[in-house]
Amino acid sequence: MAATTETETLLAPLEQYLASGIHIGTKFRTKHMEPFIYKVNPNGLCVLNVQEIDRRIGLAAKIIAKYNPEDILVVCRRENGWKAVKAFAKVTNVKFFAGRYPAGIITNPNLETFFEPKLMVVVDPWPDKNAVHDGIISGIPIVALCDTNNTTENVDYIIPCNNKGSKSLGLIFYILANKYLQERGLLPKDKVIEMPPADFVGE
Questions:
Q1: Structural domain for 134, as ranges
Q2: What is the pLDDT of residue 2?
Q3: N or C: which terminus of the chain carries fewer CB neighbours within 10 A?
Q4: pLDDT by residue (tens digit) across 88-100?
Q5: Distance separating alpha carbons of residues 169 and 142, to the nearest angstrom
Q6: Domains in the chain: how many in total?
Q7: Cβ–Cβ contacts within 10 Å for residue 43, how many?
Q8: pLDDT of 8
């Protein structure tokens, strides 16, 4: 699945990626996600390409790092990702909603809680569809973590991954936190945040 020379350049050790299950998709695949699928295992589960996951996490971090923390909104309806999103927000100071997304909060200026983000990150375009809908209305770029069963016509940038497992989501947001701070010049390229990866993983 990865040559040794490629493994050395990954954002996380290959073993760590595999242990998190970041590459294990669902039994369903959409035409949108087919380019990212490496194979289908004997159980019928689609397996995503680890190198492509890694590459796209890195590119996503560069995209996100163009924005100030107060201009970024991260949304996660699914409970498995709440701890990861909260840890990411704690480290980077971005805005987030873990749980139910309050409809209209970025589209209705009459709401007291109204604000205008410049970028949205969603953990899954399907359960987070209300946030995606508002993001489209607002005309802001949307970065989405997408599993093999997701459709992606309403998002601008895809991170292919297992977006349902807490270990997978924890590792993704741990890497994104480090890369975001590094790209912003707030963390040396050869250093990592003090918060360990385990603190990004839900029970």
A1: 4-200
A2: 43
A3: C
A4: 999 999 999 999 9
A5: 18
A6: 1
A7: 7
A8: 57
What span, in angstroms and rounded, lies between the C-alpha atoms of 182 and 199? 19
Which residue, among 56, 62, 64, has the nearest Cα to 23 in the 3D structure?
A: 56
Of 110, 140, 109, residue with least CA distance to 122: 140
Give the chain's residues under pLDDT 50. Answer: 1-7
Q: Contact, 145 vs 26, CB < 8 A? A: no
Taking phi first (over 0 means left), then psi (-120 to 50 degrees means alpha), and beta for anything else, what does residue 169 get? alpha
Token representation of residue 100: 């139910």
Cβ partners under 8 Å of residue 4, min gap 6: none
Longest dimension (CA), the chain: 55
In 3D, which of 63, 32, 66, 26 has the Cα closest to residue 46?
Answer: 26
- Bridge partners (DSSP) of residue 145 are 159
DSSP of 78-139:
SGGGHHHHHHHHHHH--EEEESS--TTTTT-TTSTT----SEEEES-TTTTHHHHHHHHHHT
Tally of helices (H runs) and strands (E runs) in the chain: 6, 7
Identify the pLDDT of residue 4: 40
Report the pLDDT value the prediction gives residue 101, as an integer from 0 to 100: 95
pLDDT at 9: 87
CATH number at residue 31: 3.40.50.10490
Spatial contact of 193 and 178, defined as CB atoms under 8 Å apart? yes
Rounded distance between C-alpha atoms, residue 76 and residue 128, angstroms: 7
